[in-house]
Design goal:
- This protein is α+β, with helices and mostly antiparallel strands and 292 residues long.
- Among the domains are: 46 residues, no CATH class; 113 residues, Tetrahydropterin Synthase, Chain A (2-Layer Sandwich); 38 residues, no CATH class.
- The chain contains eight helices and nine strands.
- The strands form three sheets. Strands 6, 7, 8 and 9 form a four-stranded antiparallel beta sheet that branches. The protein has a three-stranded antiparallel beta sheet with strand order 3-2-5, covered by helices on one side.
- A hairpin with a 2-residue loop joins β2 and β3.
- α3 packs across α5.
- The radius of gyration is 55 Å and the shape is rod-shaped.
Length: 292
């Protein structure tokens, strides 16, 4: 390789290195600051291709999208001095790049840690002036709005970020407190269950007694009506028998004898003892039923 080619190659490499350190790109999803010897000279870099002075200027780019900071669960005390374990998170984004870089050195994890600390401080102050009922359900939306508003102002002033929303993921009682609460709730439910069982048994006894009384009354009325009907039937049968007997006593006696024969012979017995001269077979001996 001749000296001229070597110098051309070195010049091209030097030019490429200068260009690579002179050009930079800011994406649509990014925010950034331009530094000159560590001092911010342009706090609002627009998306696109930019030029900087190599070894003099430096560029720090940050995520410009909405970010999430997940705070660790903390113990807070309510107005009644009752402890609650509150787990929360917040949504934020970079608003003031210069202040954000100055306060956090452009480190997202550091910004999230500082913001989480301020979230816990805000929650502690808001929970301290409310009861458990208000924190859990009664004024939960108001609590979140108040924390978001106050935290957004503090974060914008101190960290250069905009807090979009703060939400509580979960509210729990401490393990020692939750165990005592569980025992108390269990005792209350058992007491309520015993009262309901007692009321149910009392109501069942009343229903059972009323049903037994109704059964007794119905059976008595049915027996009385049956006896009346049976008596009327017996009277009617007696009247019919009397009329039949008065019209033809001999024919009536003959029919009664035939019915007696039928019932006797259908009894299934192989042996029947009767007197030879008895009245039972008189119509078999004499069609007119004359006695001998």
């Amino acid at each position: 390789m001749n000296p001229r080619s070597m110098w051309l190659g070195l010049g091209a490499a030097l030019l490429l290195m200068v260009l690579s350190n002179s050009l930079y790109v800011v994406k649509e999803t990014q925010r950034g600051v331009l530094l000159k010897f560590g001092e911010v000279v342009n706090p609002d870099l627009k998306p696109g291709l930019h030029v900087k002075v190599p070894f003099v200027n430096n560029v720090r780019l940050f995520d410009g999208r909405i970010l999430t900071v997940d705070s660790s669960p903390e113990r807070f005390f309510t107005q009644e001095k009752k402890a609650l374990i509150v787990d929360s998170y917040a949504k934020f984004r970079v608003a003031d790049t210069e202040k954000y870089y100055t306060a956090t050195n452009g480190e997202e994890m550091r910004a999230a840690a500082l913001l989480a600390q301020r979230i816990n401080d805000g929650l502690r102050n808001e929970v301290a002036v409310r009861t458990v009922q208000e924190v859990v359900s009664g004024e939960r939306d108001e609590l979140m709005e108040a924390i978001t508003k106050r935290l957004s102002a503090v974060a914008a002033t101190e960290l250069g970020v905009e807090v979009i929303d703060v939400r509580v993921k979960k509210i729990d009682l401490p393990p020692d407190v939750s165990e005592s609460v569980y025992r108390r709730m269990n005792a209350e439910r058992e007491k309520e269950a015993r009262e309901l069982r007692s009321q149910g048994q009392e109501l069942a006894e009343g229903i059972r007694a009323s049903a037994d009384r109704e059964v007794t009354i119905i059976e008595a009325n049915a027996f009385r009506e049956a006896e009346v009907i049976r008596g009327e039937g017996d009277a009617e049968a007696t009247r019919i028998y009397a009329e039949a007997y008065s019209k033809d006593s001999e024919f009536y006696a003959f029919v009664r004898s035939l019915r007696a024969y039928q019932e006797t012979f259908n009894a299934g017995s192989d042996v029947m003892l009767v007197e030879p001269d008895g009245q039972f077979f008189r119509y078999l001996r004499d069609p007119k039923g004359a006695s001998k």
